[in-house]
Amino acid sequence: MLKNFSKKDFTATNVLITITVLMYIIQINISNGGVLFGLNLYFLVYGFWWQPLSTIFAHGGIAHLGMNMFVLWQFGNLIERFVGAKKFVALYLITGLLTSILSFAYIYYLDHNVNLVGASGAICALLGFVAYYDKAQRNGIITWILLISVAPLIIGLPIAWYAHFIGLAVGFLYAIITKR
Predict the structure, then answer these.
(1) Comparing C-alpha atoms, which of 122, 118, 104 is closest to residue 157?
(2) Are 13 and 88 in contact (CB under 8 A)?
(3) Contact 54, 72 (CB under 8 A)
(4) C-alpha to C-alpha distance for 16 and 121, rounded to whole angstroms
(5) Rounded to an integer, what distance in angstroms lies between the CA atom of residue 86 and that of residue 69?
(6) How confident is the prediction for the chain on average, in pLDDT?
(7) What span, in angstroms and rounded, lies between the C-alpha atoms of 162 and 136?
(8) Residue 106 CA neighbour count, 13 Å, CB half
(9) What angle do CA 125, 110, 26 make, to 5 degrees?
(10) What are the backbone angles phi and psi of residue 39, rounded to the nearest 5°?
């Protein structure tokens, strides 16, 4: 098995995916792990300062985890080749944190009962970054984010649609600010 593992498989994207999967395993094996590692009012009420970061690595179930990690694997490795590993990790973590903090503002002011989990806000920030540089793909990216945000709501799934839109905007602005 390890004979098939090559240096090209050791990307920052794949390390982030591994960390996310390990975090999910920890999360599901701790009592109230989703609430502890998700982003919710405990961030302010009980001083759970780690939540804006940990929420990026926490997930609402194995399907949620699998879907997000597949999309991260697809786009993350592509973006990482474009900007390099260090800049990719900075992009993912900085925009992920900013998306979490801005999404928390939505939670705080508009919907107190939310426990935000998942990498999709950070992933949408990656797509916002791509949308800035790849004008030909911009409309497709925006359409895709609209679909993944609105379609689940229509069928009654609890989804943090606002984190997707916030992430898209944060990633786009990050690209403008950090033009290479």
Answers:
(1) 118
(2) yes
(3) no
(4) 15
(5) 19
(6) 95
(7) 24
(8) 18
(9) 55
(10) -105, 120
Q: Which residues are catalytic?
A: 120, 164
Q: Could you say which DSSP state residue 40 is in?
A: S
Q: pTM of the predicted model, to two decimals? A: 0.93
**Helix, strand or coil, per DSSP, at residue 39:** strand
Long-range interactions of 46-53: CB distance < 8 A, separation 24+: 51/100, 52/97, 52/100, 52/101, 52/104, 53/93, 53/96, 53/97, 53/100
Which residue, among 91, 116, 86, has the nearest Cα to 101 in the 3D structure?
A: 116
Vertex 88: Cα angle to 83 and 90 (nearest 5): 125
4 — pLDDT class (breaks 50, 70, 90): low
pLDDT at position 134 is: 96
Tokens of 57: 């690595």
Report H helices in the chain. Answer: 12-28, 33-37, 42-45, 51-57, 62-83, 85-110, 120-133, 135-154, 161-177
